Fold each of these.
Amino acid sequence: MVESLKKNGKISRKGPVVLLIMDGVGFGKYEDGDAVKQAMTKNLDKLFASCPWTKLKAHGTAVGLPSDADMGNSEVGHNAMGCGRVFAQGAKLVATSIETGAMFEGKTWKKLVENVKKTGGTLHFLGLLSDGNVHSHIKNLKDMIVEAKKEGVKKVRVHALLDGRDVDPTSALDYFDPFEDFLKDLSADGTFDAKIASGGGRMVITMDRYNANWDMVKKGWETHVLGEGRQFASAHEAIETLRKETGAIDQDLPPFVVAKDGKPVGTVEDGDSFILFNFRGDRALEISRAFDSETLTEFDRKRRPKVEYAGMMEYDGDLHIPNQFLVNPPSIDRTMAEYLCASGVKQFSISETQKFGHVTYFFNGNKSGKFDEKLEEYVEIPSDIVPFEQRPWMKCAEIADRVIKEIESGKYSFIKLNFPNGDMVGHTGVFQAVVCSMEGMDIQIGRIREAVEKAGGVLLITADHGNADDMVEHKKDGSISRDANGEPKAKTSHSLNLVPFIVYDPCYNGEYSTKLAEGLGISSIAATCMSMLGFVPPQDYDPSIISLN
């Protein structure tokens, strides 16, 4: 339990403080491919022209990732915004655990290895095969396979999901081909048998989140566990064939099963061990439940093999999913929401399904549920289950409708919302759609600004990381990378760019300096919100972006 916050005696507003998170919207470095800059955003333009604003860091060490070459992401971004400090995140924790050998000395790793040595079963690995370092890293997988062979495991099967979202959209073979060579080399002495057994695009199978589309998980289960689906002689053949047939980018490729003589090479059987090597939680929870749950109502598993299952990390510390895991997650405590509840502040949080967990679970330090049922209200607007480039405005109007209603109600002192457009549409790589998504979002920002003004509140506008601001691949010299047809090569991953922080305060009366701090990270947003709400932030929180006069 945390103590209530002290009043700062400076700021008091009639209306609420509204934190508006534009997911995936940063300041682009290049004119070409910057969908934020190319969109008609008259409301944002007016705010930039008339309000105090600054730029914040939202990647790398500023959000707890190993280095400043690592892209920020929505999970770590909302963690940082919500807890007001920087905690070492999954990517860093896992890398350190492997480098030091701590993972291999842990009871879960030893249990899974001993299980297959005893039963003669297979050690399976499932996850995203890339070096995006947002959900996983291929180096972690390779290190674990090498260690498994060293410890006497005889058979390994890899269920490899195609990325194309946190890395180049058509880069799968850059990872799969060298990885298959790596497995062949390890297996060359005849004492070890390692192969890729199945795969598919990350937005088609396995990696659903927030219970948005359990059919993805069902397809993943059928592909990886049961070995059901279209068969190919190799992952390389599957990727090349499915690309030619569908024209899809990596994240959208259909599932495939690797088979020999008509028999899948890697179904999951009783006595096997199974590791989900993704470290990020949101897209790991549902497939983990499929393995761990005695009963599952979301789909028919047909058969549930008796395996030792473990996740790379504990993906939900409250629900304890999965039952077993290899690396302890960051222990995030004393979040802003908990402090505000202790101080009697009524709070309202809203997004559509795709980012609902980010303004609740991740914002609250990877905690499910509320700190205080009487003081907090969570609203999820169901997302459309269609490709985001076909509905680039997503549910921003519906989110804005509800936010405006709650601003007008006067019930809440703090309101936070997430518009997913810049990130979810940005990941499609479809530039026109991303521009449209920005313009749709901008209309709703204008509506919310008007409601805040009428209510006498404060509107704080920011982002968790960049994406829509960097939609075209660039070479080191800044020139555009082009595909075989001479077209600009689409970029679907997050950017390393800084993100905005705008203060719209129509009732400003000189309580703080309008020159906002520079060089800070998005972890400073928590202290800023607390200050705007009239409180003194905890001493160990990262500094507020505003300084009181």
Note: The first strand starts at residue 17 and ends at 22.
Amino acid sequence: MRRTWVSCLVVASLLLGGGISLAQGPTPIAVVSISGYDELRGDLEMIGKLGGTPELAKMVEGFITLGTGGRGLAGLDKAKPLGAVVYVDGEDFPVIGFVPVTNLKSLLGALAGLVGEAKAAGDGVYEIAAGETPLYVKEKGGWAFIAQEKELLDKAPADPMKLLAGLEKTYDLAVRISVKDIPEHVRTMAAGLLQMGAQGALEQQPGETDEQHQLRVKLAQRSLDQAVKEINDLDTVIVGLNIDQKTKTAYVDLQITAKEGTETAKEAALAAKMESDLLGFVLPDAALTVRATGPITESDRDSTKELLQQAKQSLLDQLEDQNLTDEQIKKAKGLLDELFALLEESMEAKKMDLGASIVLKADALSLVMGASVPDGAKIEAWVKKLVKAVQEEEPDVEKYVKLNAETYEGVNLHTASVLLPTDTPKAEKLQKMVGPEMDIVLGTAPKAIYLAAGRDAEKLLKKAISDSKQKAGTQVIPLDASFSLGSLGKIFQFLMDVAEDQGPQKRMVLQMLTKMLAKSGGKDHITIRASAIPNGTQVRIEFQEGILSVLGNLPQMWMMMGGPGLGPPAPRLELEF
């Protein structure tokens, strides 16, 4: 019978503990779920094959077999999940771990070399001297329950599967926290700890003016108050990791739900019916895409305005160190005042809508983005005032900047060209990707602004504007972002070409990563999506198989970096129990 790395998880579960006593009628506040032996072993085998290390599971299996003296996981029920449940008792948080077993004595005997020898403690309970605090284990209904106090075992759940409530089917590893069931005094204590932890950071820093310090303290206090409010509004938090062997992908979920009727729940509901007018700015072949659409709440508005005040004050203070004349400082302050007034005005809108893409190819680097604004005409007027001020200082700027160069589908286009240096290897390579000049195009519309830069900037911007108009009003999820690591391989190659100080081992690893990602057939994306769910939000980060192949190759890369090799797997002892 084959033995695998899941025994490490069994050991971890055996080492779970906490608390001293458990009140009558306990309410679980957290549940940890780990999928079964067979599922985990399959995940490991798939990752190893994707990474060109098909023996990865056997290599780890060899260590487990060696650690258990050739007995493997005798007595473990490999078809069921394992995990733990956390209760609350005053200020203590007792933990009861559970492991599916077919024969507890066999499993404890196999793990004796790792967790210590189990001794009978009466009533079917075994005591394990694991570290300074002993653990107590008892089998009941096909489950081995583990706790730090023998009495806790009498409180073990009759059926742990009911506590898991399907987590083991959705995720390989998951934690569900019932925030609403955490006693109020514990939440109050947590809020106090947040306040205490922030005190040191809120002290006035060297070189910080009184005004800067007051702004920073005000912003931090608002953030703390908001965090405390949201903690009190929360119902449940779930964090889960799953590796899907069928699709050869992996994802991490974060689900946050608030108690029905709370302000946090109402704000989450607003994000469920958002429409975007900027889908044309999400390019299908881009290395990086971001589309964010959502309501601007009162709390968002207030906190962002205070952030803007802090940023503005910092910029104003820096002007004094630029060796500018009084007249130049006066003009700069005037422009900054107008800019931040526009930014604050943008926060009065009911929603935020943003779309952006970065195109990265062997001979092309481009950026295109669009954002909704309350009044595009005001932003255009500010840009013209900025250009005029710069021209007064540098008349040659007029040669490279053209205001109102064209009107395209109701959008005023303003263009600029920036000459790139060619006196360094990095500058030369950048010039090959964007051209001898960096083309920049700014578009202003009544309710939006657009920007493009790099190779074919104007062409990309016009297409994005046209496509957005055709798809205007499409209902979307709050956030959809994607990043291609295959395109990142081009950056790796660029770094290898210009970084002469890279050692041969690092260069070898970079080359391996580049080749691996190039073979992924485009299945090398990391995506981040935020979706509205009843009374809350789910954020999912998904990794395609090209990313998993990198994980499967970590042992080889580790050895190339000089780490100790895993060595050949220990002989597998085909023992049946």
Note: The two ends are 9 Å apart (CA to CA).
Amino acid sequence: MNVSLRTRLFLLVGFAISLAALPIILFSRSSLLESGMQRERESFVNTVMLVEDSLSVRYLHLLTSEVESVLETKRDLRQYSAMIRDMLLFNGEGESEVSLARWQKVLAASGLHLAFYDMAGRALLSDELADQLMEDGRQDFKGQSIQSMLAHRESVSEGQFAVVRLSERDGQEIPVLVCFMPVKRVGTLVVAAPVADAEQSRASLERRMVLGIQERLDSLELSRGASISVVASDGRVLAGKGTHMSLSSIPEEALERVRKGDALEGNTDGEENPVLYRLVYFKAMDWYVAASIPLSAITGPAEALARHLFAVAAVLLVLSLFVMLVLTMRTLAPLRLLTVRAGEIAKEDFSSERGVGFADDIVDDLPVDRHDEVGQLAGAFAHMVKALDENIRRLVDTLAVRQRMQGELNAARDIQMGILPPPDGAPKSPGYSAAAFLEPAKEVGGDLYDFFTAPDGRQAVVIGDVSDKGVSAALFMSMTVTLVRYALAEGLSCSEAMLRINERLAENNPSCMFVTLFIGLFDPATGRLDYASGAHCPPFIVSPNAEVPVRMVTETSGPLVGAMQGLDYEACHTELAPGEYCLLYTDGVSEAMNEKLELFGEERIASALEGLRGASPEEVLRGVMQAVKEHRGTAAQSDDITMLCFRRSEL
């Protein structure tokens, strides 16, 4: 079944949009439901708490009014008592009695009672209420004797108060607020005023609170089916709105917990019409505030909002898919043209001579004038086609040049290797065997080795490393090899040959190249090795006897060769015992690096030679090279590798 890219892209983007949108819609719906229900619950609880706070505030307000009324009465009694006391202290005894009688009439008109007792406690002015107040054994609400309050004390110079319950003619008892005002050296004034009964005050307070809270409830907007009620402890509904909640349906232990100060909240899940309820206790009036709301009233608005948002999201999803389809069709139309032109490129013969003509045919009618990504792609495609046409022609020319250069480099390599003797081309001599190995890092390199028989019959061994790589190093190397052979052919010693070579190389050396060089003359009969080392790597001498350690010949004759004229090189020598061999090498061996940039080093060379004590020169070279490759791993060869090994045969 072939499905077009347009269909695939539409299905892919549509699936991606749906995959991203549907979980968001579903999760959003769940979140909206939860948050909506939470808001409705909080709104319900806040409404109930508002009623609770309103009840508390109204109670405190009314209670404050009652207290202020009592305090106002006390202030009046104290003021009247002080005025009468001042009058008594100012007037004479006869005038005082007349003035007291007048004050008694004046106060009686205001519902107040006045009496006066001398220092002995006898009544000089009294009335029925005062006589009842001074009955033997009469006590106030605090249990203090009324008779004792007639005693003069400095601490009560501004008067003291007592509340006493007295009986009226109809047999009912009323509370009376009494002010005892001492008159210095005269007696005690008693001014009394009946006050509201506590039960009557409470009943009045309850009525006013019920009226106020009912007004508050009537002003509230409750959800459908919700109710708030203020219920007395005996089950009477004092005020409410909606269906009243009965306390009889609440277990007694739950009511007991509410009376201790805990708010009772919960729901009736599992019932036919579950509700959310809240019950609190108002201790000051022994009332309960009960509220309930159907759970459907909480979930309904949230579900309606979620359905609305789901419908909007679905419509937006369909519109997005439609717009995406139109844009996909319009976008992919130019891509089909690019596909056709790309197929035409595959049929082109890039080695032909069509040149620019082939590119013009391919890029014709491409939508390069568009400013969107398709236009950029078409422009890039057109530029690629033109560049490809031009680069193909350049590549053909470059390949031809490169092939010629490669041929010349191969020829140079052959010439360079022809200058050096074959690796197994060491002279045949009794008690002597030798082999060499050279692996350049490039086509041609700067390492050199040589072995031949000197005019005096000794075996010449030569190894060196030019400071550079490539063709220039190969030329410098070939010059060095030639100079070494000519110097030793004239019968010069190793140090004399090194001195002459240094002078010749340094005479005309504009690029300041140099070579590390080792020249040795070995006598197989005696084992003596005369040599000169121009800063070259120290050789290793290995005995077939495992008890004899591998040793390095560290003595050097002088510095680098070819760097500057006028240098001296000392003659050095060492000896090889029968069966011992000497390994000469360049720094391509000791400085071979692995992936971690760790050098192979002289210690690893010595370790490799430990296992090659009785090996032939060819086996020694193969063994050391194998150890170098294992250390190098996948890292590339960074320098030319050259080794020369010669052995003194055992007697």
Note: The two ends are 86 Å apart (CA to CA).
Amino acid sequence: MEHHLLEVDGMRVSRREDLRLMTGAGKYASDWNLPDQLHAFFLRADRAHAKIVSVNVERALKHPGVVRIYTGADAVGAGYTRPLTMLTFKGKDGMQVRQPERPVLAHGRVRCVGEPVAMVVAESALIAQDASELIEVEYEELPVVIDPEAALAPGAPQLHDNVPGNLPFEFEAGDAAATEAAFAKAAHVTRLKLAVTRVAPSPMEPRACLAAYDPRDERYTVHVHVQGVNMMRKQLAAYMNMPEDKIRVMARDVGGAFGQRSLGYPEYCMQMLAAKEIGRPVKWVSTRSEGFATDSHGRANYVKGELALDAAGNFLGLRVDWIADMGAYLTPTGPVSHLRNPSTCLTGVYRIPALYGRWRTVLTNTNPIAAYRGAGRPDVAYVIERLVTQAAVDTGVDAAELRRRNFIPPEAFPYKTPTGSTYENADLPGLLDKALKLGDWQGFAGRRSASGKAGKLRGIGISTVIENTGAGLFPKDQIEMHVAADGTVTAYTVCHSQGQGHETSFAMIIAETLGIAFDRVRVRQGDEDHPLIGNHAGGSRSTVGAGSACHVTAKKLIEEGKALAALELGVEPSQMAYANGAFRTAESKRSITLADLAKAKKFVVTAEGSFSSTFPNGCHIAEVEIDPATGVTQIASYITVDDCGRVINHAIVEGQMHGGVAQGAGQVFGEEVVYDRATGQLLTGSFADYYMPRAGLVGEISMEEHPTPSKVSPLGVKGMGESGCTASLPALTTAALDALRPLGVQHLDMPLTPSKVWSAIVAAKAGR
């Protein structure tokens, strides 16, 4: 891919959002203010598991400036105890999910550090914080369980009475008997036990919310960061047991999300309750420390994987035993994304005749898990690709050749997998060939030798992955399009950007379809005055869903415009032709523009589309150098060849890839949320303790495209936002292990910190 600005009508332009965001003119959740607003502060549990004996707020209530203090009794009294679950399918043997109650303020018991126990509402944020220190909470300590495997063991501390064994849901996919038979006839079986570590997504924008209530129409207005207004409204309405049309969600700019901002958090519901009861808006802005402890975490999957091969190196079967740590409660997105997405892509890019997976979700005394960039897709790709690379090591077959030997061939697409999903078109051999050439796979031995002479250990890693995108909670995506009297076209969508550049890419789609100038198109996101059905931005679905709907709506605008133009010109609609913003009739040589039509009559069009999953895929090759004296790993080379279907905007695709690879590299080399196993205290509660990927972690990335246009989307797009994260986890980890393997190091789990790598080198040299 070339590095350039956007090409529109032969001119180079920057992203439309950039000037506003880069000059500080953006408006984020904490920037919203309302007259006469109050401020909230949440007193949070300082222990991981305890009975709440009493909560005494008398001294705090007397503090000057305090208006009201809420406790768990208020939350339970309001009935705000059960969040929405998106886990609607049945589990193993018809099991229904055991959904634990989660009062929006803890009542009776706290189950993780940071759980909100009380909310102080005061005239200022500082007053509310000061008053919170006067609240007296008496606890009775309970046993703590942090490790998910330990939580499943007999005699483990039980978190919820209605979730025996701390097992809210068990799920299976594939054919256990067929897989067992495949393993029985295997010439070789590769086995690995892998951890996909718990991470804190940490978007730039801290969590914030401003809630107001209007008694005239009995309607709430909530200013909050979102990934889509409909997703947020549905969750809040479910938590508060009220009609969705009683909640108005407002958002403009969102400073990063990564799945974490798709949730309707408990704090928002309490603010809404207070705003109604007190009669004044209530605002809350989280601190970064609160974010580490209480914003949803990601990943936290622990997997035993097995891959069976015949004597020729052909894959016969794949089996996984998967434990998904959900934390203390089930979030709406956490369990479903860590079950559905891995089972959908359990075969990876390979033709594996027999598959079987067992998934167990587990409750522990930790912060709840939700979707995080990729939402289970990077996790399953990591497991499969680690197994394939290890199988190559075990059998002595080149890692690229073993992949090629087992790829789903191009002629087999659309491909029905053994777990029931259907992959659309892909060219995996072509993808691999291009990546091997770009990465100079054959020349690696020379580069390893040169690094060795410089005292460094060099390794190479490869991953070839596929992921499902485009699915959503809502059945369709709608776009509303207005034509103004000056010819400007404004499109409304409920799919909300958190940095992906929707205002630019959606406008490019509309401008191209209508044949008008890019600067004549405007995109408005999440405008509650234009209610629409549609999904949030998540799962790399924005362009597949809302982008495709933009194209469909623009086509409908042309067709309806022909009818309107025919009336104006006194001809039949069949006589009308359209091009470049004007309708013409060949016989009379007369024409009328979009602007002219809008002057004559209000010109508004709404259209929709339902788009099933697309399957972007890619091959990444990474090389790393390790300093054996320090254990420090540096990325020496990173190349990507990806098939995201048709590319609408090269610059945005490159940005998505850079960001995704950087997030993957952060998890591989440093990121991990750590709790004390004895007490459940969070040990990585700030950036002083938690690794932050920095600009120097990933240098220049060599990128090429290998598109096979999607047949699901009318635009031919497949999605791109998570590919870099999905492929980089296995590519970078296998590269580091390849560097260490000559010393005898066969396995390490993420994160590959300098300390861990150095210790492994020292132990290997000592023969341990």
Note: Residues 146-199+296-408 form a domain with the Aldehyde Oxidoreductase; domain 4 fold (CATH 3.30.365.10).
